Amino acid sequence: MKVRRHTAALVSAAALAGLTACTSSDSSTPAADPSSSVSGGSSSPEGAGEYDAAVSEPVEDSVYPDIGEPDVDALHYGLDLTWDPTGRTLTGAETLTFRSTGDTDQVQLDLEPQLVVSAVQVDGADATFEQQDKNLLVSGAFAADGQYELSIAYSGRPQPVEAPTTRSDFSTTGFTVTDDGSAWTMQEPYGAYSWYAVNDQPSDKAFYDFTLTVPAPMRGVANGELVGVDRADGNTTSTFHLDSTTSSYLVTVAFGKYRRLDAPPVSGVPITYWFPKGTPKKYVKNLRYTPTALEWVESKLGDYPWSSLGILLVDSNSGMETQTMITLGDTDYTTQKDTIVHEIVHQWYGDRVTPDDWRDLWMNEGMAMYLQFVWQSENTGIPMQTILRQAAAYEKQSRSVNGPPAAYDPKTFGEIQVYYGPALMWDEIRRRVGDEKFWAMVKAWPESDADGTVSRDEYLPWVEEQTGADLQDLFDGWLLAEVSPTFGG
Fold first, then answer.
1. What DSSP element (H or E) covers 76?
2. Which CATH class is domain 355-480?
3. Using one digit for the tens of pLDDT, what is the confidence trace for 86-118?
4. Domain 31-256, what architecture?
């Protein structure tokens, strides 16, 4: 997620030039690929052992333990969603394939009570279920390591959930409806349960397929690649297929009068922009930096890890690294060049390899922030150490109020110290071990546990092993100390 702007910005990139061209295809609709078509909102990844990549070991979150359930290992979500913009009603037919992590007679998912469940089936048979506050409880005989298909029919008027933050750019997360009946989602650290039944904790990655129906001229947009569009009875139904596993906070869905632009591909990766009709041209123009940003990030981190890249504009003041389809607010700040760089870096750090617990948000934001600083220095001529010393002053102030980056106050999610503290730590490490070892380590990490989820207990020893250095003093000081270390840069 993009850090919110301070009153005094570190570096202004608004004046930087070099926009790349894009070609218009706002009326085009790619033909469905029969090999990856979606039927009834559910599609399985191709090949034998189709869900093996989604098998994980979910954990109970140490920061937000009331969200998520370790008994459920979600493997695939098939989401068939119909949005009524006039009635503000969402109707869902969800098919969840999951693995039970233990022997139990009941499984639990997160789902807001505004979405009323009318029927549940387990492997095609009617099941007993109950909604208790935000919990959907489904009864059955579930065996350890058994795989089950859960079908859920629900409908209601979704509302976003309160965000545990003091940030100024967002106060709620999840399904958000605008005045004209359009809708969009951002959900960090949680909030996916405001629009579908989900194990809403980052350690549980799954495959996703979306079938999105809305009255024309609106259309739906989601993660992955658009594989089919059907127009019938005054409605538009769009199907998207995500061919990689992802955590629920990295999922995005939007309904609106969206247009599409195709940008020049980078390294064979197709790039698309989705923006509502009537979006100010300057914001669409800003997005044209995406191919250049992707090339720059690839120069630091290697090949882009996914098969496609998109940017989705929504009516928000924030931005989110939603996997393969970055969600950005329609503002000058959230569409500026360094924001785009920041969210693209997250496709490696946060999306490719993901913290299994929200205590380690710093693992995502610290490296995204550090590379954003490197980009700012390279593109503005401002010395890196000048940028970092200014960041150190903001970090010290934020830490004193919100706690250490790796032990922050749960009510202050995503504050400055979680971004700047570990970014400063990475520069201290770089200067201790040298550029060659540092950048080799930075590039290697996302592929070391590709598509997986990890904890700091795995990550920090790995960093020391890769660099051949004892870094415990820097880890302790920058991540856990109550008082900020003195930055040595």
1. strand 72-84
2. mainly alpha
3. 999 999 999 999 999 999 999 999 999 999 999
4. Sandwich (2.60)
